[in-house]
Every structure is written in C-alpha cells, then in structure tokens.
User: Which sequence fits this backbone?
C-alpha cells in the first residue's frame, strides 16, 4: 500500500511537471537502483556515476514515466540499459584491467575479520552470472520478495525463483571455504 | 524444511554478514542537483507537439531529398538543346525508269501536276476520259483491221476438238 501511495505521489508530481519529483524519486528508488547498479557493475564509483546518468535520463523521460504502467519496472529498465552501455564502454576503455578497489559490500556487524569477509563475499558474488547475482543481491541485501523482484525486472515469478535457487547453489560451492 | 532449504538459509545468513553500500549524502546532492538542472533544461513536451515536430522534420527531409535529387539529376545529365535543323531531302522519283504499271499514265500525270490523287479529282476524271478514248480508239482500230483482213477465226480452241490436253 505504501509503495502504491509513493508511486501515486510521484505520478502526481510528474503530471504537474513539478521538479520536487526528483526528491520523491530519490527517496523511493535510489537505494534499489544503487544496489542494482553496484551488482551489475561491481564497482561503487561506477554505480554512483551511472546513478546520476539514470536520474537525468528519468527526468528527460518524465512524461513517459508518468504514463508508465509500472514506474518501478520503468526506472529499473532505464538503470539496466545505462549499466549495460556503461559496461560496454568500460570494457573498451579498460580492456580487462582491475576494477576500482573501493568495496561495494561493507561489513554489517563486528567480526574478527570484517573487511576481509566483505571483500571475499564481493569476490564470490562477482563470480555469479549477472542475472543470478542481481536476484540474489536484491533478495538478500534489499529484502525484496520474489514478486517484487519479478515486477522490478519484468520477469516471471518462476524465472526469479529458479535463478535465485541456481545462484544459491553456485554460491554454496564457492563459499565452501568460508561457511562454518 | 529440507536440507537444501536449510543450506540456503545458512548461505543467506552468511551473506548478510556484509551489506550493500548506500549512496552517500554527497552523491544524493550531486544526483538531485543534476536531475533538477536537466528538468529545467528540457521542459516536458506535450504529446501533440512531439507529433507535430516529427511531421515537420519528415516534411523538411522530404523537401531536401526531392530537391537534391532534382539538382543532382540535372548535374548528371546535360540539359537538352535543339541541334541544327537538318532538312530531309528526297530526290524526285524518275517514273520513266520505273517498270510499266497499269497506273503509269496516271502517275505521270500526277507527277506533272504535282498533286496527290486524293486531292485531285479533276485529274482523275481527265485520266479516266483519256483511258476511255484510248480504249475506244484501240477497239475501232481492231475492228477495222479485222474487217480489212476477212479472217474471223477465233483464237479459242473449237468446242468438241479431240485434243488431249492432259497427255
């Protein structure tokens, strides 16, 4: 219900061509979009840059956005498209060089080796196929339900559930050394 | 709950020992500032205005295309110009040399008068008259010759003669 109310407020602001919609969009979507971008790009810096591009793109397409059936899916599609084109550019420019060192996963709780653990999890997640990684991250770190992820990424529930299951199975193998 | 689910939950719990980095307040300020700038730079277009703009662009493109096609086709092919007039010249036929034909006197007459037969009915009448006179004259000469010689034998074969034509 809260989600629908937020979408309605955004739609209303977009309909009135009110720039305050920028803050509403940020408040409602920035976290999820940033998570998706970090997952796709495996870089915090790049995710920040692309997030800015995504918001500019959203603003330019605000009339379409106001009429969109599902704002959630629309903004996520914009973010995915921008991330894909950014990845293509990055592949051409960097040609396989190392990504930036700043971690996109941070330690959640006090641990005996928090930084190391976050870094290892990041490495393991980066080895998952992108489609599975997106779903695992959204489910585990953004606490989204399968239904919400399906709506967000415009996939069927079954696809989301199976990709999540395959992702966890692969993680199980990769995390053998880390899990107690 | 089966073993696979338990393992899944265990992995989820392990993954949750880390969390995703959130966008910082600086990033928020930067992104919203840029978005607002973009908002003021590009006012939202009314849908009818978008259609009108597309129509105008299409029309302009069509005009450019047609005029450039005309221009370049004019360049590729030289402009047509009338050449010097060459009069067709035909030597008059010499009817004297032509083999004899039944119409030769009439044709000679036409050549003499220089008119086409369709336009010269009087010449045709004259010609017919001349032919008639010629034929009458020839008939009279023939009759006089026959009466003078006294021979009245027909040149045709006599009826009932026993000549075998098919032998």
Assistant:
């Amino acid at each position: 219900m809260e989600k629908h109310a937020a979408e309605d407020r955004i739609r209303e602001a977009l309909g009135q061509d009110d720039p305050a919609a920028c803050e509403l969009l940020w408040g409602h979507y920035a976290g999820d979009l940033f998570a998706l971008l970090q997952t796709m790009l495996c870089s915090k810096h790049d995710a920040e840059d692309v997030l800015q591009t995504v918001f500019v793109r959203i603003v330019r397409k605000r009339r379409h956005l106001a009429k969109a059936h599902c704002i959630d899916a629309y903004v996520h599609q914009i973010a995915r498209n921008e991330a894909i084109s950014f990845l293509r550019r990055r592949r051409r420019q960097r040609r396989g060089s190392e990504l930036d060192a700043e971690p996109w996963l941070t330690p959640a709780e006090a641990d005996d080796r928090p930084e190391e653990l976050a870094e290892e999890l990041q490495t393991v997640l980066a080895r998952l196929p992108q489609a599975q990684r997106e779903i695992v991250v959204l489910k585990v770190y953004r606490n989204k339900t399968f239904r919400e992820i399906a709506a967000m990424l415009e996939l069927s529930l079954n696809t989301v559930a199976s990709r999540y299951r395959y992702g966890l199975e692969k993680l199980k193998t990769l995390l053998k050394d880390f899990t107690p | 709950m089966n073993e696979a689910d338990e393992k899944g939950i265990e992995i989820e719990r392990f993954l949750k020992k880390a969390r995703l980095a959130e966008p910082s307040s600086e990033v928020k300020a930067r992104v919203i500032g840029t978005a607002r700038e973009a908002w003021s730079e590009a006012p939202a277009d009314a849908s009818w205005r978008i259609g009108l703009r597309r129509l105008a662009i299409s029309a302009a493109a069509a005009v450019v295309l047609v005029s450039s096609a005309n221009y370049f086709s004019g360049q590729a092919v030289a402009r047509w110009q009338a050449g010097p007039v060459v009069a067709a010249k035909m030597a008059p036929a010499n009817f004297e040399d032509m083999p004899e034909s039944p119409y030769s006197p009439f044709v000679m007459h036409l050549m003499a008068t220089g008119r086409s037969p369709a336009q010269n009915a009087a010449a045709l009448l004259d010609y017919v008259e001349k032919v008639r006179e010629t034929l009458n004259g020839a008939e009279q000469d023939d009759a006089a010759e026959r009466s003078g010689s006294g021979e009245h034998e027909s040149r045709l074969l006599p009826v009932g003669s026993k000549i075998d034509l098919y032998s």
User: Anything to note?
Assistant: Chain B touches chain A at residues 7-8, 10-12, 14-23, 27-28, 30-32, 34-36, 38-40, 42-45, 47 (CB under 8 Å). Chain B has a mean pLDDT of 74.
